[in-house]
Amino acid sequence: MARVVSTAQGQHAAAIVIEMNTPGGYLSDMIDIVSSIATAQESGIPTYTFIVPSGLGASAGSYIAMATNSILMGPGSEIGPSTPIVVGGTALEQNHTEDAMILLMQSLAQKWGRNQTAAFEMVYADQAYSASQAVAYQIVNGTANSLTDALSTWGLSSNTQITLSENFYEQLLSALSNTTLDGILFLIGIAAVVIDFFHPTIVLTVLGIIAIVAGLVGAEVVGASLLGIVILIVAAALIVIELKLGHGFALVAGVILGAIGIYFLSFNLQYSPSPIGDLTFLGLGLVVVFGVLAGLYIRWVIGPIRHRRKLTGAEAMIGKTGVAISDLKPKGEIRVEGVTWRAESL
Question: Taking the complete model, does pTM exceed 0.85, yes or no?
Fold first, then answer.
């Protein structure tokens, strides 16, 4: 959004239009976007929101919409609910965040002449409104069947349109802002590097390091829970210990502990709606399955290979008895299982 505002200012744009369809996100990101919208408005560029047909202007998205000069909603769309969630936070932290967001929502509604009572209900009672309800309660400015209709309503139909979407870098950061993905990348990256030590291919090590770095970058982007990061580091240490033990159990224990760390990564993050749902538990379950399979692979496949005695070469003679067939002064010849070797007496 900051890039959009900068572009609009550089192009002397008549307006910025947000095509919205979002279930929500981190409150810190929402506040940054609201700040960018205020920057555009202060420079004389009005900002409008069109919630697409059957789309969502939910949670964090509802605050962004409320910050804009005008809101139009498509058929079947909704705005709200807007109650923030402090994942893993105390009741006091939840109340503090909720009270702050009530004031923010009401102040945005007041700024643009919207119904403050209905805005209050969106946060306090987690209320959502359909397009017709939002118009009736004066939460939004009207409806439009399409973006074209919305542009006509705002008097922008004849203006040249420049469409800006997330570039690759922004899409990458957006993906890495998922704490569950960050933890999984970190954990699988460590496991991949360890597995590669048992039969070096370099490929797994490279991919593993990339995954580790991506996970750490994502954790930094969202300000992930320190507790979750510490648990993940302990889990990583257990996985690395597998290099010494080689029986698979340390890797399995590390991955299971890592799954717990991933669960805690999002704690104390203000988020709406909650990022912990069925997909999160499914992802953690798959991580544990991966860890168990990797541990069994080390125990049943890699372990026996590592401990198997050499069948040929000098290493195959370790522990066997040889018979001298010439004097060792100190060098001579010996016979081991029918094969003659040069030997030296030490």
Answer: no
Measured CA to CA, the distance from residue 199 to residue 194 in angstroms comes to 10
Q: Which residues pair with 73 in a beta bridge?
A: 51, 143
Read off the pLDDT of residues 31-63 as tens digits, 9 standing for 90 and up: 999 999 999 999 999 999 999 999 999 999 999
- The parent domain of residue 93 ranges over 2-165
Look up tokens 């609910």; give the residue.
Answer: 81
Residues facing residue 18 across a β-bridge: 49
Residues 186 and 135 in one domain: no
Those residues with Cβ within 8 angstroms of residue 305's Cβ, 6 or more apart along the chain or in another chain: none
Encoded amino acid at 301, one letter = V
Q: Which two tokens stand for residue 297?
A: 């692979």
CA distance 338 to 23: 77
Rg (CA), the chain: 31
Query: Quick one: 135 and 7 in the same domain?
Result: yes
Domains of the chain: total: 3
CA 29 – CA 51 distance, rounded (Å): 19
